[in-house]
Write the structure tokens for this entry.
Amino acid sequence: MAGQILAGGALVELDAAEVDYPGRGAALGPFSLRLHAGEIVALVGASGCGKSTALRLLAGLEAPTRGAVRRSIARGETSVVFQSPTLAPWMDARANVALPLELKGMKPKAARALAVRALRRVGLADACRARPAQLSGGMAMRASLARALVTEPKLLLLDEPFAALDEITRRALADDVLSIWAEERPAMVFVTHNVEEAVYMADRVVVLTRGPGREAGETALEQSFPRPPGFRTSEAFRHAAEAVSRRLAAAMGASA
Amino acid sequence: MNRLARLLAPWVLIAVLLGVWQVACAALRVPTYFLPAPSAIAGALVQNAPSLAMAAWRTFSMALEALIAASLFATLLAAGVAASRTLDQAVRPLAVALQVTPIVAVAPLFVIWAGVDHPGRAIVALATIAAFFPIFSGMARGLASADPDLERLFDLYGASGWQRLLRLRIPSATPFVIEGHKVAAGAAIIGAVVAEFVAGSGGSQGLAWRIMEAGNRLQTAKMFAAIITLALMAAILHALFQSLERRALVWWRGR
């Protein structure tokens, strides 16, 4: 259901949501998550725990088999960044980024102008006319991010967006995502299996058990945004990372 | 140097084989109706160049007509099949049955339907059938091959069926369609030649008929000349479509 008012002013809510895939059995849940405006939540879990499924539920791309998904925003106010850049190879970066706006009915010229602006925000001002095949992995991911941002979403969902990148690129991109996020502060959920990345980027780190994933606990980070330069090496960071790691290890043991 | 050697190697081999052939024919006194010497074949090629060129043009133009017709039918039907599951299920068994039946087997039927006076029509129809399947299956596969995450993106932004078809499915299918046309071009030539053989009358005036005519008269050198012309034409067409495909993919992918 879209457009209803949720308890506590939440944007989206998973209420004991479960997903079964025919022939493959249970993939997720029951799993509950309530998401508020402006917060960043990391979903952490092993491969196959259903974290991508949870993300698709939040996006409204799938319906739960049991349980409910409620949202106070329209589906078009959500954007998704997938694991791979998923840019259309036959269009240049600008056309790729303009696509969501055009699908929503905006005139191509206006859409392209906004696309150029979004590309500039992710540092790709010079690559507007480049085709995806001409972009590096990091650049393609940035273009994908620009495509997600161009609609000014209230909810931004990222499905292991940095998984295919090298460590240096992924750290740089993580910082960029945070600084871009800070401009409009959409609610953001990102899926990762990297504990440090989760702790570095999120307000809350939610750990999932092995598939079908249930919540195995949550770690809240006190440090506000923007996070100070030394945050990655701070005591608070180490504590939080250890807590998440312990929880993750327990979750793996518990349902193994 | 190495590159040069690689480039020259096939030509050297051909020259050596032709030389051995020429010498063997003379030394063993092979009758020319059985196996003419390369020099005799070359003579026949030069002597019959105008009529062979005409015949090649006939076969080529019939294959081209067939390719265009097949392209039209196949893309339309594939689009229909992609749009409607029912149509897909209705068409599939028929399509498979038609595909696995050898062209030679149905050719006599088409010759009857086209009438003895119009073998050209039967030939174009048969070549169209031969060229149809590579394009149809390429297009059908291509339309279903769009990136599932891109499909989700179209879901997310509430794309209409037309937007999905025009902005996602057809562009995604393009490389498959191009490859289908390349394969279909070869199939059309084969279909045309096979149909000419079956039609078996002079009315078609294509290369296959030249081969048969020469064979019937035991003009083996002329027969070889026609076969070589056919092989050359097919090779040139193949190279042409190969380079067209490469260019089209560069255009599609941007590099």
Summary: The longest helix of chain B spans residues 161-199. Residues 72 and 132 of chain B are 9 Å apart (CA to CA). Chain B touches chain A at residues 147, 149-150, 152-159, 163, 167-168, 171-172, 174, 252-255 (CB under 8 Å).
